[in-house]
Amino acid sequence: MPMMDRVVAWISHERCTCNKATDYWERYDNKKKEIAERERLEEESRKKRERIERLLGNSGIKKRFQNRTFKNYEIDQGNKDAYRNSKLYAENFQRFKETGEGIYFSGGFGTGKTHLAVSIALDLINKGTPVICMTAIDLLAQIRKTYDKDRNVSEYQILQVYKEVDLLVIDDLGKEYCSDWAATMLYDIINDRYERCLPTIVTTNYDDEKLVDRLARKSNYETAGAIVSRLHEMTMGITMNGKDRRKERS
Ligand SMILES: Nc1ncnc2c1ncn2[C@@H]1O[C@H](COP(=O)(O)OP(=O)(O)OP(=O)(O)O)[C@@H](O)[C@H]1O
Ligand SMILES: [Mg+2]
């Protein structure tokens, strides 16, 4: 072998092919692939977070909600299962992300639905997961704003972040005035996430049946039914029966 070829062979670490070395190189290659994949996912998450920040700012969580964490959630007999399941959900989010399973928090006013949903969102945001957490009213308002002439963000861009974010939290579903347009938008977002198998968390005062009525407003029963049917399949239900903590405080 000429001198130059020998040098190149040495620099490129020609691999020994004995059994022990083959095992070693296999593990080495797998580890390298694993690191590259982790870096790719981290970069993807970073880009998504930047896009959310640019288009919506602060993941959509308003100031009043920023301190609704697991830490300051008071546990009582009525909410301990809801608390435990929400905490487990946040801790095992990667598993739920793979299956696309979300949560359907339902129950009366002031029972802690939003507090738990926001606690999950904040916990994941702190770990670097891209999350959007907004009321259904704000979520629709962000789309509507894109129709302003001087806005250089398109409806498509906003819809894409709702459709692609790792976790979408829709707070207070059913409270919005649900015109045909609003029902179609909500269907588009939820159906897309359903098809992509991405998790969605919903909080609402209504059970399945009542939510269909709220979303249909007498004219969109098919769309409303399709939304609720998908949510049913995409989420585990957590029903909150506790006291109204707002009343308790006043
Ligand atoms: N277990 C709890 N520990 C501490 N604070 C709580 C708890 N449950 C609710 N709260 C507080 O009570 C207020 C109302 O709770 P929250 O907004 O979560 O209710 P909700 O079920 O979403 O009500 P609504 O149906 O009206 O939206 C909030 O300030 C929240 O932080
Ligand atoms: Mg709420």
Automatic annotation (TrEMBL):
SUPFAM superfamilies: P-loop containing nucleoside triphosphate hydrolases (SSF52540). Keywords: ATP-binding, Coiled coil, Nucleotide-binding. One of its GO terms (molecular function) is ATP binding. One of its GO terms (biological process) is DNA replication. It holds the Pfam family IstB_IS21. Residues 43-247 form the IstB-like ATP-binding domain. InterPro entries: DNAC/IstB-like, IstB_ATP-bd, P-loop_NTPase. This is IstB domain protein ATP-binding protein. It comes from Alkaliphilus metalliredigens (strain QYMF). The lineage of its organism: Bacteria, Bacillati, Bacillota, Clostridia, Peptostreptococcales.
